[in-house]
Write a structure and sequence with these properties.
3-stranded mixed beta sheet, two-stranded antiparallel ribbon, 11 strands, alpha+beta, single chain
C-alpha cells in the first residue's frame, strides 16, 4: 500500500503540471505574460528532484519544493530548500546521483516564485518576489537568485510576511542589496573565535551617513572609518627587540576618497605595502584581501581571503571573521610566529569584527580588512580600491567600469516589424545574449535584460547597478525616447 507521504508527494508533483496561471493579455503596452506558476516556476524541476534518489528522501524534497515557490512562502524558503537538497546529495554514495541532485538544487534556486498582482490598483500591478538577503549554506548556491517574471513592474515587490507591496530600494528589492552578496553570520559563524585573554583591544567606528543604495564602489560612499587597536604584549614578548610593550596602530581609511569618476582617483593600483617588524615565524604575509570573483565566484560577489593561500590555506568567505580567525590560528600553530605577532593578530581580529557588518557597503567591508592588515603592519587601501577580480592589486579605473562579462551591453531597440508585428515594439538589440521576445511595454524588455545580467552574464556590480538605474530613468517615457534613455544609462560606465 502506498504511504500517505508518498501519495501526498505524487499529488504535489502532479499539481505543478497543471500550469495554473492568471492570464493577463497585452493591450497597448500592458503585459501579455501570465502569472506563471506552473510552466516557468515548476518547469518539471520538483518532479525531477522527487525522482533523483531512491527512498523517501528525494520524494519528500520534491513534494516540499512546490510549497517553497508559493506566494506566501517566506522570502528565504526557496534558498533554504535548495540547501537541503544539496545536504541530502552529499549523503548519497553514488557520485552521479550526488552531482545530479546538486544540479537540480541549483536549477531549483533559480526558479521563479509565484507572486500575486496588487489588486488595490487598476489595472492590477504585477509584483516581483523579494530577494533573500542571507548567504546560502552551500557554495554551489553562491550568487544565485530566483528569476522574475519580465512582465512585472520593476519597482514593485510582494512581501509574503505583510502581504503588502514593497517599493524598489527597500531591503530585499535588489539582489545582494544592490552590491555584493551579503554574508550571513548565521551561515558562517562558528569559526569566529574570541580574542585571546592576553589581548586587550579597542576598536571604534565613527558614524557617518551610509552610501546611497545604488552605490557599490568606494566612489560616493563618503564615509571615514577610524579603527584604533591597542595591543598589550605578554611579558614573554619583552625579549622581542622589534616590539614595544604596547603597540598602538591607528588607521584612517577614507572609504570615499575616490570620487564618482575613476579619473579622479590618485592611485590606479594599490598593492599592499608592509612596514611590519613582527616575527611571523616561517610565514611572510598574513594579510588579507577583499574583492570580487575570488576562487571562481561571480564577478558581483565580494569576499575575503588570505593574500597568500599557500601558507594560509583558508578559502574565501563572505564573512571575513572566518578568514581572520583562520589566519591567526595558522600564524600561531603552523608558522610558529612570535608572541608579539600572535597578539597583534588577535587584536587585528577584534578590530575587524568591530568594523565588519555582513550588510555593510563594499567600502565599509574593505575598511574592515584594512584594519586587520594595519594591526599586522600591512598598509592596504581596500576601502577605496578593492582587489582585482580573482585577487591581487586592484585598479580603480577598471573597477569603476561596467563589465558585462559573458554578454554584450544590454541595449534595446524600438522599431516596427519586429517578430512580425505591425506596430512598433521593443526588443533586446542582441537577441542571442538576451532572449526576451518583443513587447509593446518596454519595461518588460528592460527588466528581462537586467535579470539576464545577473543570472547568465555574470556581470559586475557596476553593470548590474547601472541596469537597475536605467530602468528607473525611463519612467514616464515611451517609444524611441524610452529606448534612448535606457541605452544611455545602461552604457554610461563602459
Amino acid at each position: 500500500m502506498i504511504s500517505f507521504r508518498a501519495y501526498a508527494t505524487i499529488l504535489a508533483i502532479l499539481a505543478i503540471s497543471t500550469h495554473a496561471r492568471w492570464l493577463i493579455p497585452e493591450r497597448r503596452g500592458h503585459a501579455i505574460i501570465p502569472r506563471r506558476f506552473g510552466q516557468e516556476q515548476g518547469n518539471g524541476i520538483p518532479a525531477q528532484i522527487g525522482a533523483a534518489c531512491a527512498g523517501e528522501i528525494c520524494g519528500v524534497l520534491g513534494g516540499d519544493a512546490i510549497s517553497k515557490l508559493l506566494a506566501g512562502s517566506p522570502v528565504c524558503d526557496q534558498q533554504d530548500h535548495a540547501d537541503k537538497i544539496i545536504d541530502a546529495a552529499r549523503l548519497q554514495t553514488d557520485p552521479a546521483i550526488t552531482a545530479n541532485m546538486i544540479k537540480l538544487a541549483v536549477a531549483f534556486r533559480q526558479l521563479e516564485k509565484n507572486t500575486p498582482p496588487d489588486f488595490t490598483v487598476q489595472p492590477p500591478a504585477l509584483r516581483n518576489s523579494l530577494f533573500c538577503e542571507k548567504a546560502p549554506k552551500n557554495p554551489e548556491l553562491n550568487g544565485l537568485v530566483q528569476a522574475q517574471d519580465p512582465a512585472n513592474d520593476p519597482k514593485l515587490f510582494f512581501d509574503p510576511a505583510t502581504k503588502a507591496t514593497v517599493l524598489l530600494g527597500q531591503p530585499g528589492t535588489s539582489p545582494f542589496n544592490g552590491a555584493s552578496t551579503s554574508g550571513s553570520t548565521k551561515i558562517e559563524t562558528s569559526a569566529a573565535a574570541e580574542a585571546s585573554a592576553s589581548t586587550t583591544a579597542a576598536a571604534t567606528v565613527t558614524s557617518a551617513p551610509a552610501a546611497a543604495a545604488t552605490t557599490t564602489t568606494a566612489a560616493g560612499a563618503k564615509k571615514t572609518v577610524t579603527v584604533t587597536v591597542t595591543v598589550t604584549v605578554p611579558a614573554a614578548a619583552a625579549t622581542d627587540a622589534a616590539t614595544a610593550t604596547e603597540v598602538a596602530a591607528s588607521t584612517t581609511s577614507a572609504a570615499a576618497a575616490a570620487e564618482t569618476s575613476a579619473a579622479d582617483n590618485v592611485e590606479a593600483e594599490v598593492p599592499a605595502t608592509s612596514s611590519s617588524n613582527l616575527d611571523f615565524g616561517s610565514c611572510t604575509n598574513p594579510s588579507i584581501e577583499f574583492g570580487p570573483a575570488f576562487n571562481g565566484r561571480a564577478l558581483r560577489e565580494f569576499t575575503f581571503k588570505p593574500v597568500d593561500q599557500t601558507q594560509f590555506a583558508q578559502g574565501e568567505a563572505l564573512n571575513g571573521n572566518i578568514v581572520t580567525n583562520a589566519v591567526c590560528n595558522i600564524l600561531k600553530n603552523n608558522c610558529k610566529a612570535s608572541d608579539a605577532a600572535n597578539t597583534a593578530c588577535e587584536a587585528g581580529k577584534t578590530a575587524f569584527a568591530a568594523a565588519f557588518s555582513a550588510t555593510g557597503s563594499i567600502a565599509e567591508k574593505g575598511a574592515a580588512a584594512d584594519a586587520f592588515n594595519k594591526a599586522l603592519g600591512f598598509d592596504t587601501n581596500l576601502a577605496v580600491v578593492q582587489s582585482a577580480p580573482g585577487g591581487g592589486p586592484g585598479n580603480a579605473a577598471e573597477q569603476a567600469k561596467a563589465n558585462f562579462n559573458k554578454c554584450s551591453p544590454p541595449t534595446i531597440v524600438f522599431a516596427t516589424g519586429i517578430d512580425g508585428r505591425t506596430e512598433a515594439s521593443f526588443v533586446p538589440e542582441n537577441r542571442t545574449d538576451y532572449t526576451q521576445g518583443s513587447a509593446l511595454n518596454g519595461n518588460i524588455v528592460t527588466r528581462a535584460v537586467c535579470d539576464t545580467l545577473v543570472n547568465k552574464c555574470d556581470a559586475n556590480v557596476v553593470a548590474i547597478n547601472d541596469c537597475a538605474a536605467a530602468q528607473l530613468v525611463t519612467a514616464g517615457l515611451s517609444g524611441q525616447a524610452f529606448a534612448d534613455a535606457f541605452n544611455a544609462a545602461v552604457t554610461k560606465d563602459l
